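REQUEST FORM: STRUCTURE PREDICTION
Request ID: SP-0412
Submitted by: Lab K.M.
Chain count: 1
Length (residues): 110
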Amino acid sequence: MSDQNTPAPRPVSLVAIVALLALLSLFGLVTVRVYTHHRSAAPQNEAPENLSKDLAWKATPELRQTALSDLRAKQALQATTYGWVDQKAGIVRLPIDRAMDLVVQEHQGK
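STATUS: Completed
RESULT:
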């Protein structure tokens, strides 16, 4: 059942293998060079005076901790007070306890 006219496979030359590996290495070097050349340093590795205002909080652990505690205080205030989310659309913010009471009242009536 085998075909007698099928030619035997030709061996791959050592020169072709070396050339292929050299091209692959060159491609890898160019890729690494392109991707690492345009990367800027991480904000936590930059000097605070070199950072933009919106990234300055990432400069030091103390600034990150201060930003985190400010964010948590703001979220705690939002979770416990009334306020407008979008006044034009009529969307308000309720304290969590009041919102839970309203949901319970709504479901008790059904």
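NOTES: The mean pLDDT is 84.
Reviewed by: T.R.
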